[in-house]
Amino acid sequence: MRNFARLILYYSLTFIIIFAAVTGLKYLSLQVDWAKNLPPKPETPLTLLIASANWALALTLFLSIILTINYIVRRGFFPLVSILSVMVLSIVFCYGISHALNLMKSVPSAQVMPAAEPRRDGDSSAAGVQLSEKGLILSNSLSRNVTSIILLEGTANPYGPRVTAIPGQPLTFIEPANPAQMPRLSDTELKLPPIPFVDDTPWFLKSLDIDIRLNAEMFQQKFSEGILSYLMYVGSFIFILCSLGYLLKFSAWPLANLFLAMIVFRGIISLGTFLNAQEIQDVIGIFLNNKFLTSLAIPILFTGFGILVYIYTMLTTAAKRKPGNDD
Predict the structure, then answer these.
(1) Does 315 lie in the same domain as 214?
(2) d(CA 327, CA 320)
(3) Does 184 fall in a domain?
(4) Residue 182 is part of which domain span?
(5) Which of 269, 289, 281, 261 is nearest to 219 (CA)?
(6) Pick from 45, 64, 55, 47: which is nearest to 25 by CA?
(7) What is the pTM assigned to this prediction?
(8) Which of 218, 239, 180, 197 shows the shortest CA–CA distance to 295?
(9) Domain check: are 146 and 249 in the same one?
(10) Into how many domains does the chain fold?
(11) What is the distance between the alpha carbons of residues 148 and 138, in angstroms, rounded to a whole number?
């Protein structure tokens, strides 16, 4: 009973700490992304917080399960009861937080205000910014590897003063010597600091962010469909994640086992994204020819794979405990 209480406390603290930390970091990231939009999207702090919490919930689920299973293996707890406890706790935490976030969406401060109408010619009191106005950025991306041009007067004077961002060089302000001609270097050329917003994130982190976001959106979609649909999908996801606990006993090096488990968990996240793609759903629908069975295809697949892993784990454990086994 004491071990059981310790397990509940460990999982609860792990889940809460990771969820709070990841939500805060994601919120700051969304604030930066919001500041980079031209014009800014109509958002409120609460809507950004809800979006951050939804994204963090999916990542927290994966991390808390792998850390708790690692704790179970190191402490030598009874595996069957411990794994079942982790499953129940994961479902309770996920559903509770999803329900709370869904209620927060109905709070008045979470309602996104409609975007202001564009300013009309001659109307200085009207709010709003058009993409064709001052400060138009011409660029395929905000990376340092792409040359960008900022038209300071917008399309109203495309040959007017501008700022150019050339890869590997500071920003350069250029004012045309003759406004009727194309801008060229003149006496008014100024060197400015490098562009502040860049995207140098490694691809493996970008792909992880995309997969987690898509899984989080799927969690929200299943929650909106009803508690049964949510429990079947999220429960099957938790089931297959908990079945991979044997990876943490794969070798005699605990740290190597933990990294191996994280790699496999990353593969499961990608598998969930792949199976939920509309093209794959269409293929599954063609074979099953039934909308209800199509919605159950992924939960059944995850549950079936998890059962096979549990059977394999039990057989290998029994073989190792067999008398006279040299291993």
Answers:
(1) yes
(2) 6
(3) yes
(4) 142-192
(5) 269
(6) 55
(7) 0.68
(8) 218
(9) no
(10) 2
(11) 6
Helices (H), the chain: 2-36, 45-75, 79-104, 203-225, 227-242, 254-276, 278-288, 291-320
Tokens 């800014």 label which residue? Answer: 40
Distance CA 74, CA 95 (A): 28
**Do residues 170 and 33 both lie within one domain?**
no
N- to C-terminal Cα distance for the chain? 32
In SS3 terms, 268-318 reads as HHHHHHHHHCHHHHHHHHHHHCCHHHHHHHHHHHHHHHHHHHHHHHHHHHH
Residue 185's pLDDT is: 47
CA-nearest of 71, 60, 61 to 3 is 71
Whether residue 170 is found in the same domain as residue 265: no
Tokens of 306: 């998890």
Both tokens assigned to 29: 């990231």
Q: Are 246 and 313 in contact (CB under 8 A)?
A: yes
Tokens of 176: 């045309």
129 falls within a domain: no
CA-wise closest residue to 146 among 198, 190, 196, 193: 198
Residues 66 and 90 in one domain: yes
pLDDT of residue 146: 64
Compute the half-sphere exposure of residue 267: CA atoms within 13 Å on the CB side of its CA: 9
Q: What does the pLDDT profile of the chain (327 residues) look like in tens digits?
A: 777 788 889 999 999 999 999 999 988 888 877 666 555 556 677 888 888 999 999 899 988 988 888 888 877 776 677 888 888 999 999 999 999 988 888 776 655 555 444 444 444 444 444 444 566 666 655 555 567 777 776 667 767 777 777 766 667 777 765 555 554 544 444 454 455 445 566 777 778 888 888 888 888 888 888 888 888 888 888 888 888 777 777 777 878 888 888 888 888 888 888 888 888 888 887 877 766 677 788 888 888 888 888 888 788 777 776 665 554
Give the Cα separation of 263 and 257 in Å (integer). Answer: 10
Residues 223 and 309 in one domain: yes
Task: Identify whether residues 263 and 181 lie together within a single domain.
Answer: no
